[in-house]
C-alpha cells in the first residue's frame, strides 16, 4: 500500500477476500466491465451532452494516456476540483486507470482549502474548471502553484489560459498495467474529527465493495436514473451508491450543478429520474417546492436523505408529499455506511438512520471509559470493517487519538441501536459544526480568526437552526476595544484568506473572555448553550 497509509491486518485481508467482499478488480477495470456490458446505453447526461458507456470508457483511456504524457504516473496525487460535470467522471476514471490518485476537493473550496490539500497530499497536479459560479479557478491555481513546490501541472476544463486544457490531453490510448486493487485509489477529505481536515485513503476494492453493497441495498438496476445534485466529489453522491452505483448497474447518471428545485425538477421530468440523494435542508426545500410544482415528479422511486440529522416530522412530510421510498443514510468519508432499506417500515425509515451495510461492519457503542453501553443506550460509536479506513494518510502523530489499539475508528458520533440493529444518531463529541451536511471544523475556523491582529481569543460552535439544523457561531474576544463593523471586517478577512463560503460564521458575538473549563480550555458546552439562547431570541431567516 502507498507509503503513509495504514494497511488492514493480514487476517482481515484474507477474511474479506475469502468472504467475497473484496474483489480483484480496480475501479478503472470495473468501468471496463460495465462498458462491455452496457456499451451503447447512456451513462452520463450533463446539460445537452450525453455519453454512452462506450464513450465514457474510451474517454477515460484517452485521458489516462494524456495524463501520462504530462508526466503523471502511479501514486501521484492529483487534486480534482471539478463541479458536477461529465468531465469530472472521465477525469477520475482516467486517473484510476493510470494509478494516479485523485484527491477530491469540493466545489465550494477556495484557495485556503486547496493550498492546504495540495501541500498535505504533495500533489503534482491540480484539475479545475475555468470558471464556476462566478469564481475564476485559474486564479486559485496561480496562487497555489506559487505556494506548493510539489505542484507542477494545472489542467483546466474549458478555457485554459496559460495552463493545459483538459481537451488537449485526449490522445491515443496506451496500455497501462492495472493498479493493485488493494492499493489506494483516491482520497476523500474528512469532515474533521479534531483539528484540520485529514485525507482518507480509499482502496479500489474497499470502495468497490461500498458501491456494490449500497447499490444492492437501494435496488439499483439498468432502469435507474440517478440525479446528482450534491457534489459528485463527496462520498455520498460518488459511491453510496451515487454515480458509481448507477454506472455499476448500467443505469443513467444525470449531473446537475445544484439541488435548487428550479433546476432539479425540470431535469427529473425530462430525464425521468428515479433516484436522488439529498441533505436534510434540501429535502425540506424539495418537500415545499413539490407541493406547487408544475413538473412531473412521478418517476421518482427513491429519495435518499443523509449527511446530517433528519427530523422525524420532516421525514414523514416528505414521504407524504412524494409518495416514493425514503432512505435515510448515515455515512462518513472514513467508511461506515448505514442506510435504511426500501423494505423497511415507515417507522424505521422516519426514526432511524438504518443498519450498517456489511455483515462484517463491527460497530461498538462505548461510554467514556471505553466499555460497551447497555442495549438501547447512547454511546460513542466506534467502527471497524471491510470499507472503513485503518488510518488517515500521513497522520501518525494523531493515530492514537482517532483509532483504538485494535483498529476501531473513533467516529466522534454518539448513537444508540435498536433491537433490530438500526442506528439512531444522537449527537457528537467531535468539534465539528454540521451545517446541513456541510462539515465545518471549529479548529480550522478558529485558526483563521486568530490570525487577525485584533482577535485575542475565539471559540466557534454550532447554534441550532430550523433549516440547516446547525449554523456556525463565533465568539470573539478582541484585543482592546471592539471596533465599529468588526464582524464585517472579520468576514472580509476570511474571504481574503480564501476560506470556503460555507465556513464563514453565520453569527458573531463579542465576549470579554471565553468561559473556561477546569483545565483551562474554552468551555464549548457553555458557548453552545449561549449560542442556542441567542438563536432562540433571533432566529435566522429561512434561506
Ligand atoms: C457524510 O459523510 P461526511 O464524511 O461528510 O460526514 C460524516 C459525518 C458523520 O460522522 C456524522 O457526524 C454526520 O456526518 N452524519 C450524520 C448523518 N450522516 C452523516 N449525522 C446525523 N444523521 C445522518 N444521517 O455525511 C455521508 C457520507 C455517505 C453517505 C451519507 C453521508
From TrEMBL:
Highest taxon listed in the record's lineage: Bacteria
Alphabetized Pfam families for the sequence: AMP-binding, AMP-binding_C
AMP-binding enzyme C-terminal domain boundaries: 444-521
CDD domains: 23DHB-AMP_lg (cd05920)
InterPro entries: AMP-bd_C, AMP-bd_C_sf, AMP-binding_CS, AMP-dep_synth/lig_dom, ATP-dep_AMP-bd_enzyme
Domain AMP-dependent synthetase/ligase: 32-393
Region (Disordered): 532-543
PANTHER family registered for this protein in UniProt: LONG-CHAIN-FATTY-ACID--COA LIGASE, NONRIBOSOMAL PEPTIDE SYNTHASE PES1 (EUROFUNG)-RELATED
Name the UniProt record assigns to this protein: (2,3-dihydroxybenzoyl)adenylate synthase
Organism of provenance: Streptomyces ochraceiscleroticus
